[in-house]
Every structure is written in C-alpha cells, then in structure tokens.
Amino acid sequence: MKPQMLDTLRNLLAPVIIGESVPRLVRWGKAAPRSLIRRLQADAFRGVVRYAAKHQRFFARKLEERGIDPARVQEPEDLGDVFTTPEDLQRLPAEDFLCRAPQAVYETTGTSAVPKRVYFNYGELEAAGRYEAAALWENGVRPGDRVVCTFDPGYWLSSWVTFLGCKGMKLFCSAVGKPTPWDFYPRLAVYRYNVIIADPTWLVSLTEIAEREGTVPMKLMVAAGDRMTDVYRSYVQKVWQAPVVLGYGSTEAGGGLGMECRRREGYHLDEFNFFIEIVDPDDEGYGELVMTTLSRRTQPFIRYRMRDIARFNNEPCPCGAPLRRISRIKGRRDEMVVMGAGNLHPEIFDRVLHDVVGISEGWQVAVRQEGLRDILEFRLVLNNGTKPGWVEEAVRRNLEAHYPDLWANQACGMYKLAFSFLPPGALEHRRKPKRLVDERQS
Ligand SMILES: [Zn+2]
C-alpha cells in the first residue's frame, strides 16, 4: 500500500467512516487484516517519533545525546537503548514530557511513594473511552445494559475512561467511586445493574455477600488488574453464572492497553493506539512490556518501560479478532527477585497461596539473608481461629506440587523456608502493597 493510501485511510476511515460509532469501530477492528494493522502501526510509530522529537524536550534530548536523526527512525530497534522509564517521569518536571497545553492530569503511585503524572486533553480521554467501549461491545455489552463501575477515583483515571466509554455507547452508567461491597449490594437490584466493572478484590468481596444473600441476573463482569487468580475467577463466575473478563491497562496508557475476549486466554492488545514491544525476553519469551503511544499528542510516550513481565501469544485467537495477544502479567520487573533457587515472581506465590484456607488477602513473601543462606519468608495474616501449623503445611504442600524445582532446591538446602504471622492490616498501608520483596543486603 502506498503511503498516500495509508493517509487516506487514517484521515477518512477513522473520523468519517467509523466516526463515533462503537459497533463500526469493532467491525473495522475485526475485519482489518494483520498486514494492514502492521502497516498502520509502523506508520503511526514513525509519526509519533517525529512529533515527539520536535515537541518533547525529554525525547529530543535523548536523541541528541545518542546522535540519532529522528527522520531516519523506521522502527523501535533504530532507537537503540532510548527508552522512557517510570523513574524519568518521577524525577523530571512535567514540562520535559508535555508537547502541548493539557486539559487533564492523572496520577499513579504504583508501588513507590512518588506519583507519576500523566497529562491528556479531552479528545484523548474520549478516544480512550471509545476503545474501551469497543472492547466491552466485543464482549457482548449493548445499549440497554446497565453498567456500574467501582474503581477508586481520586487522581486515578480508570473510572473516568469507563464513564466516557459508556457515554459514547449511550449506556446507563454509574461510576460511583469505590463504595464498600456491603453498602453497594442492595443497589444492585434497585438499579438493575447487569455489568460490573471493578477491581478483583472488591468483586470477590461482593460475590461473597451475593453468595449468601442472593444474586441478580448478570451479563458480564470486567476486572482490571492482574490480582485475579483463576480460583477467584471461577468462584465469581460460578456464583453469578456470568463470565469475568480481565482488562490490562495503566494510567500511563491512558486506560486500557488490552482486554480479554470471551475465550479468556490472554489480553488482545489495542494495536491501533499502542505499539508494544517485549524487551530482554527469557528463554520462554517472557520479558518487560514496553509501550509507545501511537495516538496521543499531549504527553506521548516513546518506548515506555512498563515494568510488567509478559510474553506474546502469536497464535490466532479462535474469536477471530486479528489483534495480537499477550499472556497474563507474570509479575512486575521490580518485584522479580533473583535467587539461587531461580527467578521468583509474585505470581508464583499467588499460585502457592490461592487455595490455602484461613489466610487473608494481604500477604507478602520476603527473601532475606541469614549468614550465608537465603531465607524465603511467608508473611501471612491468619483469619480468626486458623492454626498456623495447618497453614504452613498447606503452603509447603502447594510449593512442592506446583513448583517442584523450587521445592527441590529448598530440600537440598539452597534456601530455607520461614513463616511469620502478622496482625490484621499489617501489610495494607498502600494501594498496591508489594507481594514479593528482596531484603538482602546487596
Ligand atoms: Zn480472542
């Protein structure tokens, strides 16, 4: 395809043919051949690189330091080791990243205390809403459905983007902040919600109430964040008799980067708005996700290191969508701990602890050192009446069953297991408490 035709596609197709229509956007997204998606992406990548070289101080400086001419950049590899990191965002003033006057700002604190600030204009937020709406449509949401979204608001952006997406589809929508599940439960029937968009822990708590008190007809539940283990997902799905699909996104992405389809086997990426790379992959293809925003112009990100570990799934999805998938998030790079026994990810302990009865949601695993030996310490909060001995036994059993290599290294003395039991609330001082910490002296 000639460059002029790509231009025609971009200039005509998007605003004129698709317009604001979510169903048309979905049809186009599903019909677009992969070769065309790749061409559009490559073209948009070059476009945003040239734009940021001209308007973004941070990126211009990086190019200059390395003597890279933006006009010659064709693909991410041409940028060598030029990346944008979360630390850059925390350390440098907003002006270094802003390319034009913003109209909105959101923050994310992640696992550290200094917020990352991301600026947008209204058009960008509405566009993010439209693509989220497309993902909801593809998962069966239609006008007439009633959506409730209970993401934490404040300086967090998810609930606003969901609200704008619902507005675009003319859906009944309550984006109500995060009420307690008990407070919210009676309103389910009053307002006849049949689509719930929430974080996994909240959804599980609501489900526990509904299991006792009764459910209402539910079409779909969307949980964002990767803390929903398969066990929780099956529990929630069973109680409501409705599917739970997961979404993956971040404030830096301006909302969703990808969402599962009804097959629920990995996130389909929004390849129209993001170019995703996986850098430093291991033997199995798992590496750090790196995102370039293709459409935003207020504060675009060129090769932003997301610190999340995942891998591509290049198998075509039986749902027919041409959009590439990534696996579930294996963990955060800054939460990965390299130990003699192997590379540890929080996901390992999610799996070891998920069906251990009598422990609460808040837990942490620490790698410590005693003399020359590494200690793998489980810090757990027990529910009333739980005997520590049972819990220890169950954890050891799961570790042996699910991670025989890790278990074998322990059995041969490469590290030692330890358990400590903490009072309720001891680990819940932040929005995203660290699941896995490395406390060894470097
Ligand atoms: Zn699919």
Number of helices: 13
Give the tally of β-strands.
Answer: 21
Radius of gyration in whole Å, from Cα?
A: 23 Å
Strand neighbour order, sheet with most strands: 4-3-5-6-7-8-9-14-13
- Distance linking N and C termini: 54 Å
Largest sheet: 9 strands, mixed
Oligomer: single chain
Shape descriptor: globular
Give start-end ranges of low-pLDDT stretches.
Answer: none
Name the structural class: alpha/beta
What's the pLDDT, averaged over the residues? 90
Helix content: 25-40%
Ions, cofactors and other ligands present here are: zinc ion
Strand residue percentage: 15-25%
Topology (elements, then pairings):
Elements: H1 3-18, H2 22-31, H3 34-55, H4 57-66, H5 86-91, E1 104-108, E2 116-120, H6 122-138, E3 146-149, H7 158-168, E4 172-175, H8 181-190, E5 195-198, H9 200-213, E6 220-224, H10 230-240, E7 244-250, E8 255-259, E9 267-269, E10 274-279, E11 287-293, E12 304-310, E13 312-313, E14 325-326, E15 331-332, E16 337-339, E17 342-344, H11 346-353, E18 359-370, E19 373-382, H12 388-402, H13 404-411, E20 415-422, E21 436-438
